[in-house]
Amino acid sequence: MTIDCPTPRHEDEVVLLGHGAGGRLSAELLDQLVLPALDGGGGPLEDAALLPGYRELVISTDSFVVSPLFFPGGDIGSLAVHGTVNDLAMRGAWPLALSVSLIVEEGLPLAELRAVLGSLGKAAQNAGVPVVTGDTKVVGRGAADKLFVNTTGIGRRHGALHPSAALARPGDAVLLSGPIGLHGTTVLSTREGLGFESDIASDTRPLHRLVKALAPLGAAVHVLRDPTRGGLAAALNEIARDSCVAVEIDESAVPVPEAVASACDLLGLDPLIVANEGCLVAFVSAPAADDALAALRSVPEGTEAVRIGEVSPHGPDGRVSLRTLVGARRIVEMPLGEQLPRIC
Predict the structure, then answer these.
(1) What is the tens place of the pLDDT at every residue in 181-234?
(2) E-only strand ranges, 209-312
(3) Taking the CB of residue 146, how many other CB atoms lie within 10 A of it?
(4) What are the residues whose beta carbons fall under 8 Å from the beta carbon of 203, sequence distance 6 or more?
(5) Helix, strand, or coil here: 290?
(6) CA 235, CA 33: separation in Å to the nearest integer?
(7) What digits encode the pLDDT tens for the residues 54-80?
(8) Which pTM was predicted?
(9) How many CA atoms lie within 13 A of 85 on its CB side?
């Protein structure tokens, strides 16, 4: 007779801040709990999804819990619009409409709520996307931290521009539309009173016009991703994993503002893992790389676009490596969890 031992259920486990960081803990939570419960999975996890039954329509939803609500360069209202517009854009889509839902803590000054909503409305207007529906809930003191915002967006894809995290190919050029680390270091410095916010500001902005400039290149644009939570390191690792390729970038080519580098040195952070809200990574076929760079630089949001690496025809699939300033190579790991909580 055999006795089958039951699998431990680990009922004492709890959700950690790191589960919402966009790194390995987030992936574990999705793979082991969320996706099985929803009968999901089976493909790459994209920033936005095709709407079933509507071939060119794309949908995305996101929740914003950033602390503090206001920071140099933006606030939770504009960030909520930009974040969802950008998730649509990373699937090659132009935003058509947004919904906005608010969860407000009792006691939030109406002046702060008014300022957030004014900023949110202005950001939507500037992006050219209407807010067509929404919802508001108020919870008791201590049940939320001032204000949480959820936005859902619907977009329509541009012609032959159909990027996916699973489409990177050997030989592709890796392009970056601008400097990294500005958003995460600005929010952290403001929250903790570190003083760096006097030198830097969040890069939060919409990227759909940048993607529209790439649209004429069509199928030559293989992957688009905005490196938000987990930064550039997480974005590149996700693409390498989903496309089963090896990615190599050059440290000297990655633009890191001096104030960001100083903040990261002080805090012991790698700029590659710091969140961004106003730049994108593009994987394009090598023959189209120069045209793609020119297209990015033709738009104000992409004037500092650079080529930072390529997809290697050799090397282990799913690995991201960095050529350092001294000529060595190091592996760029997927971040484990939340080193900078409440960033978006």
Answers:
(1) 999 999 999 998 988 878 899 999 999 999 999 999 999 999 999 999 999 999
(2) 221-225, 246-250, 281-284, 306-312
(3) 18
(4) 73, 178, 179, 182, 183, 276, 277, 278, 279
(5) helix
(6) 22
(7) 889 999 999 999 999 999 999 999 999
(8) 0.91
(9) 31
